[in-house]
Amino acid sequence: LLLGCELTASTKSYTFQVDEEDDSDHILALSLVCLTDGAKDECNVVEVVGRNHENQEIAVPVANLKLSCQPLLSLDNFKLQPPVTFRLAAGSGPVHLAGWHRIMHREDASFEEDDDLSEEDEEELPPIMPAKK
């Protein structure tokens, strides 16, 4: 699924979250951050706000855009775990964020047990021989 949002002076943040009861694994990948039509020549700092392994909120700047010198930044599918908030920490935008959302459905546990092969069913692999000189 494609993701897109825009941060402006009036809409300074956007939160991406998934249903807490959903047992699928979700990955949010941020591809591009860019200034759009109407942006002023000022520093626009975009932060990602999430939680660390101790469940403390942390904010990390991921882009500092300025119309005259760096109007866009490719983030090469920077992967994040939802829920995550994108915040315009400085500037008035508009800043457009683009990326994708991947959903990986977990297999039912009963299928995993059925798929296990017994030792008798496993193929025997030939031993690894040393390379010839």
TrEMBL record:
Amino acid composition bias (Acidic residues), ranges on this chain: 110-125
GO biological-process terms attached to the record: chromatin remodeling
Keyword Lipoprotein: no
GO terms for MF: chromatin binding; histone binding; RNA binding
Localisation: Nucleus, Nucleolus
Short name of one Pfam family: Nucleoplasmin
InterPro entries xrefs: Nucleoplasmin (IPR004301), Nucleoplasmin_core_dom (IPR024057), Nucleoplasmin_core_dom_sf (IPR036824)
UniProt xrefs under SUPFAM superfamilies: Nucleoplasmin-like core domain (SSF69203)
Keyword tags: Acetylation, Chaperone, Methylation, Nucleus, Phosphoprotein
Organism domain of life: Eukaryota
Main location: nucleus
Region (Disordered): 109-133
Occurrences of domain Nucleoplasmin core (ranges): 3-102
Gene Ontology cellular component terms for the protein in this record: cytoplasm; nucleolus; nucleoplasm
Family: Belongs to the nucleoplasmin family.
Quaternary structure annotation from Swiss-Prot or TrEMBL: Interacts with NPM (via N-terminus). Forms a pentamer with NPM at a ratio 4:1 (NPM3/NPM). Two pentamers form a decamer.
Role, per record: Plays a role in the regulation of diverse cellular processes such as ribosome biogenesis, chromatin remodeling or protein chaperoning. Modulates the histone chaperone function and the RNA-binding activity of nucleolar phosphoprotein B23/NPM. Efficiently mediates chromatin remodeling when included in a pentamer containing NPM3 and NPM.
Listed name of the protein: Nucleoplasmin-3
Organism: Pteruthius melanotis
Gene symbol of the encoding locus: Npm3
